[in-house]
Design goal:
338 residues, four-stranded mixed β-sheet
Length: 338
């Protein structure tokens, strides 16, 4: 019902927009056609060039359950809160739902968005330099950054992960060029009859700079949250909050092997939106079974590609024997790569 209402409101707004566009086109059809042919004028190097995604917005008076159902319908893990004038008033994410609602034992049906949303979040404008926006996200640990116009109206949402994925191809091309350059320099160096210490140092440094780091560089030695398949969702949310992580591994009680993975996004989409009780719902009902894993020798760029192609945000790292070494999220990989 909530999804249908949201879609009806969206269709109504789109109809009004199309009507206004038709009226404008009637007053200057030739100019409009020329504008459509040229396309929008987006300045390179700006936030607009990063192509912010459309933002999912809600009013702060709706319940967490209603917001979760809307997020489930749109497969979103963050929501912007707007006031009566459609101006940006706050933001909340799946992590907020997990830590501030489920871990606290609050009833999602009676808890409102205003109770957990981060008020007056930092935002950027479309004409702001893209590097400034990305540096802000990396420096402050933001995954999402709202994009507004000068009046405070929401025009989009930057997701650093999406920006990172779109840069993967360019990064790979640069890496291939770097490898070719290194091979050429190494070939010249081998032809020299006398090896200078300075040149050897230069070549060694070049090799280190041109190689992508592997997963060992993002493993901090901390143990991931590991639970059994019968653990209630609320208990897992509390453990994740204490460890300041957004994912946990489910390990088989008998074999000790990884049987599933469970994240804060699963709490929103599979528990709250579905009307399940986090206090009694066992994680085995809502986890993702048999998650993908990587070895510590896997490069960060290969891990990011795999996560992008297979559509997940967390990746267990195991050794050759299958023993868990850590659990990394895509945000950490993005920050390390940037």
């Amino acid at each position: 019902i909530i999804r249908k209402k949201a879609e009806a409101d969206l269709n109504k707004k789109m109809s009004q927009t199309r009507q206004k566009g038709a009226e404008a086109a009637a007053g200057g059809a030739a100019a409009a056609a020329a504008g459509r042919k040229r396309g929008p004028n987006v300045a390179t190097g700006t936030v607009a060039a990063l192509r912010p995604a459309p933002a999912l917005t809600v009013r702060d008076g709706i319940s967490i359950t209603e917001a979760a159902q809307l997020m489930a319908a749109k497969r979103a893990d963050s929501v912007l809160v707007v006031d009566e004038d459609e101006r940006l008033a706050g933001i909340f994410t799946a992590k907020d739902v997990a830590f501030r609602v489920v871990a606290e034992g609050l009833d999602a049906r009676t808890t409102h968005v205003r109770d957990i949303a981060t008020r007056e979040p930092l935002c950027v404008t479309s004409d702001m330099p893209a590097t400034d926006a990305l540096n802000t996200m990396v420096g402050r640990g933001f995954r999402h950054l709202p994009v507004c116009n000068e009046e405070g109206d929401v025009v989009g949402l930057l997701d650093i992960i999406r920006c990172m994925y779109e840069a993967l191809e360019k990064m790979e091309r640069a890496h291939q060029s770097s490898k070719a350059l290194y091979a050429a320099i190494e070939g010249v160096e081998k032809e020299w009859s006398v090896h200078s210490a300075q040149m050897m140092t230069f070549v060694t440094t070049l090799r280190e700079r041109m190689s992508f780091p592997d997963m060992t560089t993002v493993l901090d030695g901390s143990d991931p949250v590991i639970v059994g398949p019968k653990t209630p969702v609320m208990d897992i949310a509390r453990q994740m909050r204490a460890a300041r992580v957004t994912a946990s591994l489910i390990v088989d009680d008998e074999t000790g092997s990884i049987s599933g993975i469970f994240t804060s996004k699963d709490i929103v989409l599979r528990v709250i939106a579905a009307g399940l009780d986090p206090r009694t719902c066992s994680v085995v009902r809502v986890m993702t079974p048999h998650p993908d894993t990587v070895l510590p020798s896997t490069s960060l760029i290969d891990a990011l590609k795999r996560m992008y192609e297979r559509h997940y945000l967390n990746l267990p790292v195991v050794d050759e024997a299958g023993e868990v070494l850590g659990l990394v999220d895509v945000l950490r990989l993005c920050y390390a790569t940037l």
